[in-house]
């Protein structure tokens, strides 16, 4: 026996209200989020805010004094890029449930988000934390192979 239209509409409205509250909560949490990443040479720590904007940059242990400008720039770009990818993945994970189909209202099928188009291809790549501590090495950023 099918459920009356009025009851289905009531369920859909309740789910919509719950989803709106969950989205508002998630948005509040995301506005406060930040990620900091240390460059692989441990010379730079970059922090990004909720929209991937650079909010902090630290030069650690005076290592920058012994670095060429190109090496320092590569370390900054590496750390900032890795922090931005972490933030993008955090946003993606936080927002993914809102795209899923409704379990209570079968008519609400959900929708697909093109995360790669939104954040770029790095957000979908496997995290290579085991290989480089989560980032490419600064030598990679310089186009060097790291061999002496």
End-to-end Cα distance, whole Å, is 75 Å
The level of helicity is 40-55%
Order of helices and strands: HEEEHHHH
Major sheet description? 3 strands, antiparallel
DSSP strand content = 5-15%
Rg from C-alpha positions? 21 Å
The strands making up the biggest β-sheet line up spatially as: 1-2-3
Q: Segments where pLDDT lies below 50 for 5+ residues? A: 129-148
Structural class: mainly alpha
Question: Please, how many helices?
Answer: 5
Globular, elongated, flat, extended or rod-shaped: what is the shape?
elongated
The overall pLDDT, averaged over residues, is 81
Number of strands: 3
Q: Layout of helices and strands, plus pairs?
A:
Layout: H1 5-31, E1 35-38, E2 44-48, E3 54-59, H2 69-95, H3 115-119, H4 129-132, H5 138-142
Antiparallel strand pairs: 1-2, 2-3
How would you sum up this structure in a few lines?
With about 150 residues, the chain is mainly alpha-helical.
Describe it:
The protein has 148 residues and is mainly α. The chain has a 3-stranded antiparallel beta sheet with strand order 1-2-3. Strand 1 (35-38) and strand 2 form a beta hairpin. It contains 5 helices and 3 strands, in the order H-E-E-E-H-H-H-H. Residues 129-148 have low confidence and may be disordered.
């Amino acid at each position: 026996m099918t459920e009356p239209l009025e009851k289905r509409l009531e369920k859909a409205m309740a789910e919509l209200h719950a989803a709106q509250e969950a989205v508002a909560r998630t948005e509040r949490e995301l506005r406060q989020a930040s990620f900091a990443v240390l460059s692989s040479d441990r010379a730079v720590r970059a922090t990004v805010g909720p929209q991937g904007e650079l909010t902090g940059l630290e030069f650690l242990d005076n290592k920058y004094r012994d670095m060429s400008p190109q090496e320092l720039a590569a370390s900054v770009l590496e750390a900032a890029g890795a922090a931005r990818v972490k933030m993008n993945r955090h946003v993606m994970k936080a927002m993914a449930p809102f795209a899923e189909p409704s379990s209570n209202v079968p008519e609400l099928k959900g929708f697909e988000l093109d995360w790669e188009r939104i954040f770029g291809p790095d957000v979908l790549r496997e995290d290579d934390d085991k290989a480089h501590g989560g980032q490419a090495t600064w030598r990679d950023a310089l186009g060097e192979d790291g061999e002496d």
